[in-house]
Amino acid sequence: MRVCIYGAGAGGGHFGARLAQAGHEVSLIARGPHLAAIKSGGLTLISGDEEIVTFPAATDDSSEPGHQDLVIVTVKATALASVAEGLKPLVGPETRVLFTQNGMPWWYPLGIDIEQRLPALPSFALSDAYLEAVRPEQILGGLIYSANEVREPGVVFNNSPGANRMDIGAIVPEHDGDAEPFREALRAAEIGSLPVNDIREAIWKKLLFNMSGSVIALATGNQSSIARRDPALGEVYLDLVNEGLAIAAAYGYRLNDELRPEEMLKKTLDHKPSLLQDFEQGRAMEIAEIVLAPLEFARAAGLNTPALRTIAAIVVRRAKDKGLFA
């Protein structure tokens, strides 16, 4: 299978290394010192006691690899506006394009009839550019459950050995069977990939984790587990999750029977989430998609979400003061 990882940083580098080791023809779109290191010495993945060194093709020019079977777009949501044009040389009639960004995805309104009134998120406007490169039935949504960081150029360190997953599903429901060969390829590469009955429901489930533990971590400068270790922050966490459950329910996804706030709190990780990593390293942050998007969904539904509104104001101010959010 020909697979291109568009944005082969931490998460993309991990999955690219796994797929290359499994024998797929992998190409990486990367940049800067990370790209230079991969081109000169290969891509190294360290996960627990395991060290994998692979030598996939790597470039910063998306016109080089040619048409792919699968393109996995792993850039941050903040960089998506610059990717649509670069996708065009990679996408043929049978190509599938998998988007794995955190938070509310740009493609959410596409491919289905949505009865509820949606907010006018800036990310939804990206569909005009992307639909020039790819048809809705070619698009897969993805959710990454994997903790990774680039420790040095060319070296990806995995903080969740044995617990790495990428769940994928077609955004046009009747095309979900198209996703199964790619799930099988991920599993064969030692990446978990579960069937997804409704990719939008899965998006809401993960968003509830991100808009609670990840946002508290950003606000406090701690690992996500600070909410589990600090009783006062634990109460804020529960408030955020309960508000998130109410927002999801307002848009047709009643998740209370599956997601129990107290159980979610117990599972918070001793890991700095990507929001905090980006803040500390001075990179653009996915605040709009993880924090402000659910807040706008709540407002469009007429819901009062005081915990989310408060913590959103705090983290937006922190990001603005550091010049990481406009």
From TrEMBL:
Catalyses which reaction(s): (R)-pantoate + NADP(+) = 2-dehydropantoate + NADPH + H(+)
InterPro entries: 6-PGluconate_DH-like_C_sf (IPR008927), 6PGD_dom2 (IPR013328), ApbA (IPR003710), KPA_reductase (IPR013752), KPR-Related (IPR051402), KPR_N (IPR013332), NAD(P)-bd_dom_sf (IPR036291)
Coiled coil, from the record: none
GO molecular-function term, one example from the UniProt record: 2-dehydropantoate 2-reductase activity
EC number(s) from the headed UniProt entry: 1.1.1.169
Pathway given in the UniProt record: Cofactor biosynthesis; (R)-pantothenate biosynthesis; (R)-pantoate from 3-methyl-2-oxobutanoate: step 2/2
Broad class of enzyme this protein falls into: oxidoreductase
Residue ranges constituting the Ketopantoate reductase N-terminal domain according to the UniProt record: 3-160
UniProt domain Ketopantoate reductase C-terminal: residue ranges: 198-315
Pfam families: ApbA, ApbA_C
Stated family: Belongs to the ketopantoate reductase family.
Entry function: Catalyzes the NADPH-dependent reduction of ketopantoate into pantoic acid.
Protein name as it appears in the record: 2-dehydropantoate 2-reductase
Origin organism lineage: Bacteria, Pseudomonadati, Pseudomonadota, Alphaproteobacteria, Hyphomicrobiales
